[in-house]
Amino acid sequence: MHERRKPVIVMVVASLIGMVFAGSFLGALHHTRPHDVPVAVVAPETDVHRLGVMLDRKEKGAFDLTAYASQDKARAALLNRDVDAVFVLGDGSVVGQGQGARLIVAGANGRIENGVLTEVFQGFGQAAGIQVAVEDVVPLPSDDNNGISSIFFVVTTAIPAVIMAVLFAFAVPTAGVGRRLALLLAGSVVLGGANVLVADAMLGALAGAPWALWGVTSLLVFAVASFTAGTLRAAGPPGAGLTALLLVPIGLPASGGPMGPHFIPQWYAACGEWLPPSAAISAVRNVVYFHGNALGRPLLVLGLWAAAGIALLLAPKRTQKQRETMTPTAPEPATST
Questions:
Q1: pTM of the model
Q2: Which of 53, 111, 218, 257 could bridge to 192 as Cys pair (CB 3.0-4.6 Å)?
Q3: What percent of the chain has pLDDT over 70?
């Protein structure tokens, strides 16, 4: 490569990476609005339908309302992560008859989402002439009063996982697949434990379930590190670089960040559900704040990424001799005698 072209290539690559960061973060988070936020409503079906029509007049498709027969079942749905809030109209109440109401939220879902829910449903109460009291059944601890510790915890775990996979590749370049997987597994447990030690014991930002958090964090590290190692083996440094871009500038905004997936474009949130950052953020919150409920899907996503990484590491790699054999060679020119 000509020496004068190298600076130009560096500037072009850096600009493209910057465009990915700016387009992904700003595209997802610059203009947020709620869509299909799941809310349980303790009221007859007819009242729930009328409430949905009223809310749609203000923001079409913002809320997905589901009727529940009892407040206990609705609360259970909130704690199981089936819904993000519960709106109780009261026994036998009808929308617009002046009865009191209650909005039950889980503060651990995030301050921004709960603020929107409170504003919308209390605004509805004022318009309907009813008093709406707010109850928080899963409040955020004082050490995580904004509900963003889980997001930054995942980011500060995923990036070192990528770095660890790259460092292993340079530290033990001749290691076989079995040894490499063993090193990645051991490193995942160590790195996961170290980050949990900081987040739980030292800072108290994600306290309450250290062993379960350690398990989830180790799985996150192994999923990211094994996939990075696999792409590095299959495509070299560009593969590892693309993996890092997929995880941070794409994966993080696709999770919804501090607002959650119900406040970003729907297609982006749908993609984010299958990326490690979104799955890991949900898993961390569910472990720390919701007693380990609704862990099935996040663990499935992380497990699939780990399986993909293992498959890439196990796939046969072309040797230099095989590449030379598959590359057609030009016929030698005839020599005159």
A1: 0.87
A2: 218
A3: 91
* Rounded Cα distance, 74 and 51, in Å: 17
Residue among 300, 312, 291, 180 nearest 243 (CA): 312
What is the rounded CA–CA span in Å between residue 155 and residue 138?
24
By the 10 Å C-beta count (0-12 exposed, 13-18 middle, 19+ buried), 216 is classed as buried
CA 268, 217, 238, 21 torsion-angle sign: positive
How far is 285 from 80, CA to CA, in rounded Å? 12
Structure tokens at 190: 């160590």
Three-state DSSP at 275 gives coil
Residue 326: pLDDT band (50, 70, 90) is very low
Q: Which residues touch 14 (CB under 8 Å, ≥6 apart)?
A: none
Q: What is the dihedral angle through the alpha carbons of 288, 294, 297, 301, rounded to the nearest 10 degrees?
A: 10
Task: Tell me if the domain spanning 37-139 has CATH number 3.40.1710.10.
Answer: yes
Say yes or no to pLDDT of 93 above 50: no
Query: Is residue 103's pLDDT more than 60?
Result: yes
CA distances, 106 to each of 43, 197, 300 (Å): 20, 26, 24
Q: Are the C-beta atoms of residues 183 and 168 closer than 8 Å to each other?
A: yes
Q: What are the structural domain ranges in the chain? A: 37-139, 143-316
Q: Is the pLDDT of residue 283 over 90?
A: yes
Which tens digit of pLDDT belongs to each residue from 227-260?
999 999 999 988 888 899 889 889 989 999 888 8
> Which long-range CB contacts under 8 A does 146-149 form with residues at least 24 apart?
146/111, 146/258, 147/107, 147/108, 147/109, 147/110, 147/111, 147/258, 148/110, 148/258, 149/199, 149/205, 149/206
Q: Which amino acid is at 204?
A: G
- E strands, the chain, in order: 37-42, 63-68, 85-88, 101-105, 132-136
- Ordered DSSP codes for 109-123: G-HHHHHHHHHHHHH
